[in-house]
Amino acid sequence: MKKGESFSVRPDSKGRITLGKHARGISSFIVTRERSGRLILEPRVEISAREKWLLENNEALSCIKRGIEDAEKGKLKSEGSFSKYSTSKDK
Question: Which of 13, 43, 68, 76 could be joined to 26 by an S-S link, Cβ 3.0–4.6 Å?
Answer without folding.
Answer: 43
